[in-house]
Structure formats: C-alpha cells, structure tokens
Amino acid sequence: QVQLIESGGGLVQAGNSLRLSCAVSGRTFSIATVAWFRQVPGKDREFVANIDWNAWSTTYANSVKGRFTISRDNAKTTVNLQMNSLKPEDTAIYYCAARVPRNEYQYWGQGTQVTVSS
User: Is there a contact between 40 and 92 (Cβ–Cβ < 8 Å)?
Assistant: First the structure.
C-alpha cells in the first residue's frame, strides 16, 4: 500500500503563488508515477501534472504548462506542486495520486482545496 497526504492549499489572489505538498509513504519502492489532479464540484477530475518516480521526467496539462512545476525530493518522500501566476480557473480541490507499473492511478490522497480570488 501507498499512503498520500496533501497539504498547502488555501485562498490566494490571482497572480500569486502557492505550493502544494504530497507526503508519500508506505511501499514507495513500487511506485512508477506520482501525479496531481484537480476537480471542481460537478465536473470531471482533471490531470494537472505528473513525475516519473525514478527518472524525474515530467508532464503537464496545457492549461498549467509554464506556470506550475512538479518536483520530488531525493528521499522520495514528498512531491511538490509549485503553482505560480494563479488564475481563478485554477480553483479546485487538488489531489495527489500514485500508480505502480502497468496500472492506473490507484492510490489517492484526501485532497486539498485551492481557491484563487479575482
């Protein structure tokens, strides 16, 4: 099992920055990829960014490319999402998720609310 706990959400004004953290524990050696998703109530969950657990490669949604940066620490205990130039449309609940090879994202955190005011 893998456990994920998000933190760092809050209320910010448009144009400002926020950093989300995801504490990763458990069978971390089995992880292939860790990602951030977001969801607005009543809408589908949206992919934001992911990072390869062992190769450091990253992928971003077009909507956040150039503004958000995903990273992880060398100890493989934390995945961060640095969010700059925030927009009101970035308002959502942000979830951290992990997957093992040849599987979909099966481990999820509880989510953290991000609200961007105009």
Answer: yes
- The per-residue pLDDT for range 28-52, each reduced to its tens digit, is 999 999 999 999 999 999 999 999 9
Tens of pLDDT, residue by residue over 91-103, are 999 999 999 998 8
Question: Which residues have CB under 8 Å from 21's CB, separation 6+?
Answer: 6, 7, 8, 78, 79, 80, 81
Report how far Cα 19 is from the mean position of its chain's Cα atoms. 10
Q: Is 87 exposed, middle or buried (0-12, 13-18, 19+ CB in 10 A)?
A: middle
What's the pLDDT score for residue 76?
85
Which band of pLDDT confidence, cut at 50, 70 and 90, is reported for residue 104? very high
Place of tokens 């599987």: 103
Q: Cβ of 4: how many Cβ atoms within 10 Å?
A: 19
Q: Which residues contact 98 (CB under 8 A, 6 or more apart)?
A: 2, 4, 24, 31, 33, 34, 35, 105, 106, 107
Distance CA 106, CA 8 (A): 22
